[in-house]
Automatic annotation (TrEMBL):
<dbReference type="InterPro" id="IPR006638">
    <property type="entry name" value="Elp3/MiaA/NifB-like_rSAM"/>
</dbReference>
<feature type="binding site">
    <location>
        <position position="99"/>
    </location>
    <ligand>
        <name>GTP</name>
    </ligand>
</feature>
<comment type="similarity">
    <text>Belongs to the radical SAM superfamily. MoaA family.</text>
</comment>
<keyword id="KW-0004">4Fe-4S</keyword>
<feature type="binding site">
    <location>
        <position position="68"/>
    </location>
    <ligand>
        <name>GTP</name>
    </ligand>
</feature>
<feature type="binding site">
    <location>
        <position position="72"/>
    </location>
    <ligand>
        <name>S-adenosyl-L-methionine</name>
    </ligand>
</feature>
<comment type="subunit">
    <text>Monomer and homodimer.</text>
</comment>
<feature type="binding site">
    <location>
        <position position="17"/>
    </location>
    <ligand>
        <name>GTP</name>
    </ligand>
</feature>
<keyword id="KW-0408">Iron</keyword>
<dbReference type="InterPro" id="IPR058240">
    <property type="entry name" value="rSAM_sf"/>
</dbReference>
<feature type="binding site">
    <location>
        <position position="257"/>
    </location>
    <ligand>
        <name>[4Fe-4S] cluster 2</name>
    </ligand>
</feature>
<dbReference type="InterPro" id="IPR013785">
    <property type="entry name" value="Aldolase_TIM"/>
</dbReference>
<dbReference type="GO" id="GO:0006777">
    <property type="term" value="P:Mo-molybdopterin cofactor biosynthetic process"/>
</dbReference>
<feature type="binding site">
    <location>
        <position position="194"/>
    </location>
    <ligand>
        <name>S-adenosyl-L-methionine</name>
    </ligand>
</feature>
<protein>
    <recommendedName>
        <fullName>GTP 3',8-cyclase</fullName>
        <ecNumber>4.1.99.22</ecNumber>
    </recommendedName>
</protein>
<dbReference type="GO" id="GO:1904047">
    <property type="term" value="F:S-adenosyl-L-methionine binding"/>
</dbReference>
<feature type="binding site">
    <location>
        <position position="24"/>
    </location>
    <ligand>
        <name>[4Fe-4S] cluster 1</name>
    </ligand>
</feature>
Length: 329
């Protein structure tokens, strides 16, 4: 086994977020408001199944235990089930997760589960079908809800929901969301809107901090959960009267990056040490065949030594990330 992934600030990396496509069929106002636009006329070439196998094998060899398959919309890949199977087959990878907009779940989530998917996050920005449409540009609220039911049917004990907090759009829906999770094993995670390179006035119009939700939870008897070493950055709260949990992801809080435990590989095969702020390290030239696995591991290890201490978002930086679909949010 290769050396464990550790940066120069003694942070250890157990968690890989692997993007498998930049393409998406939704038009979320904060991500791809005009829908997916290819960078040039040529058909984009995303990582093949073999390349995905090699890159996850390298990470697994360095101690990665959790891989999240993301995008764009990962389930748009025709070979999505094979991708899950490939990732799940790596020795040492015990958690195989995906983040999806959920539109294909009702039909396919059983098959994904059988292929080895252990965790699923679904993006649901509103429980009001009209507001859902306004935020995502797609009239698929009911289809996504059916998908969530299907996930429970397929045997997922918990489903995580991602909700981007948007002032004046969904920020009044807390009571509705709390009611929804009262009797369902859902971990609902409110994510503060992050400013990206392509975002215009949306950020100043709709960004709202999660602090008021945190205060509300604490005042109403919710308790903070202790974290595991490959857990994400969410502060998770539980309550004895609720089957579900509430997570808060607040990237603008000071010290957010101290607990960073994840690395990213983009759909075009670049290693990103942070969601924000750098151009990425090319890995694709080392993914063509199995003979370059040790060079691949060396490049990942060496690049990690250049990881910065913070994304400096709290100082107003947006870095070079145009939108989260392009790097795998
Ligand atoms: N298409 C899938 C989905 O929406 O679940 C996976 C990719 S999407 C980029 C991953 C997550 O990033 C989603 O939950 C989405 O809501 C979130 N996201 C995208 N842009 C964001 C932004 N600017 N600020 C905060 N969260 C964002
Ligand atoms: Fe697509 Fe996900 Fe971005 Fe929405 S957040 S546009 S579903 S990639």
């Amino acid at each position: 086994m290769a050396k464990q992934l550790e940066d120069s600030f003694q942070r250890k990396f157990y968690y890989l977020r692997l993007s498998v496509t930049d393409v998406c069929n939704f038009k979320c106002t904060y991500c791809l408001p005009d829908g997916y636009q290819p960078a040039d006329q040529k058909k984009p070439s995303f990582l093949t199944l073999d390349e995905i196998h090699r890159v996850t094998a390298a990470f697994a060899d360095c101690g990665t235990t959790k891989v999240r398959i993301t995008g764009g919309e990962p389930s748009l890949r025709r070979d999505f089930t094979d991708i899950i199977r490939t990732v799940a087959s790596q020795p040492g990878i015990t958690k195989v997760a995906t983040t999806t907009n959920g539109y294909r779940m009702a039909k396919h989530v059983h098959e994904w589960r059988q292929a080895g998917l252990t965790h699923i996050n679904v993006s649901v920005d509103s429980l009001d079908p009209k507001m859902f449409y306004q935020i995502t540009g797609e009239n698929m609220f009911h289809q996504v809800m059916e998908g969530i039911d299907a996930a429970f049917d397929a045997g997922f004990e918990q489903v995580k929901i991602n909700t981007v907090l948007l002032k004046d759009l969904n920020s009044q829906e807390l009571p509705k969301f709390l009611e929804w999770i009262k009797t369902r094993p859902i971990q609902l995670r409110f994510i503060e809107l992050m400013q990206t390179g392509e975002m215009d006035s949306l950020f100043s119009k709709h960004h709202v901090s999660g602090v008021s939700i945190r205060n509300h939870l604490i005042a109403n008897g919710w308790l903070l959960k202790v974290k595991d070493n490959n857990d994400g950055p969410a502060q998770v709260f539980y309550h004895p009267d609720y089957l579900g949990e509430i997570g808060l992801i607040m990237p603008y809080e000071k010290n957010f990056c101290e607990s960073c435990n994840r690395l990213r590989v983009s759909a075009k095969g670049k290693l990103h040490l942070c969601l924000f702020g750098e151009d990425g390290v090319e890995l694709r030239d080392l993914l063509a065949d199995d003979s370059q696995q040790s060079q691949l591991i060396e490049r990942i290890q060496a690049s990690l030594q250049t990881k910065a201490v913070s994304h400096f978002l709290d100082e107003g930086k947006t870095g070079m990330t145009p939108n989260l679909a392009s790097i795998g949010g």
